[in-house]
Amino acid sequence: MSNRVKLLYVDDEELNLQLFAINFKKQFEVHTAFNGFEGLELLEKHPDTLIIVSDMKMPKMNGIEFIKIAKEKYPEKKFFILTGFGITEEINHALESGLILDYFRKPFNITEIKSSINSAIAGK
Description:
Layout: E1 6-10, H1 14-24, E2 29-33, H2 36-45, E3 51-55, H3 63-73, E4 78-83, H4 89-96, E5 102-105, H5 110-122
Parallel strand pairs: 1-2, 1-3, 3-4, 4-5
Helix pairs in contact: 2-3
C-alpha cells in the first residue's frame, strides 16, 4: 500500500492531465479527472486524497465552483487552482476567503507547485 500523499488533478485537457501526472507521480499518488463532476466522484472513491489542484477554466463547472462543492464535503483537504490566465476577481476572492491556498499559472512551474504543496502538507 502506498504511503505517498494522494493528489487529485482536475483539467478538461487530456495533455495537461498527462503532463501533470508524469511530473508529479514520483512524489505523489496522482489521480486525474476530466471535469469537476469526475473529480467529486474520485474524492468519494479516495476520501484520503489530501491535495486537490484544479484547472480554472472548464466547461459546465469551473475550478472554483468545483472546489466550493468539494471543500464543503471535505473541509480538511488542501485546494489549489491552476490557470492559463491572470488572477481574476473570483480567484482572488477564493484566496482571501481561504477557499484555496494558492494558485498557479500555466504553463505550470513544477518546482513552485511542489513547494506550495509541500508547505500545505507540512501545515505551514
